[in-house]
Amino acid sequence: MATLVLAQLDRLSRNAAFLLALRDSWMRFSAVDLPEATDLTVGITALIAQQEREAISRSTEGGAARGQEPRDEAWHARWRRGA
What we know:
single chain, 83 residues, mainly alpha, two-stranded parallel sheet, 54% helix, elongated
């Protein structure tokens, strides 16, 4: 059986269904940040990662809904100069 070694399990995917399907397949995980992870902790981590993804998406959509313009290169140049 193959083992996938990761720095952080939640960086593999933020899609719980994908991670759970992978967990249930031929793939085993070994995460450096959580080496003692069991099938239960992999499942919980997958669900938390998906929840984080959804929260980030809502936050991003909320900014767009408030009419915030995307920052262009001129804005970044001014920010770097401290203006």
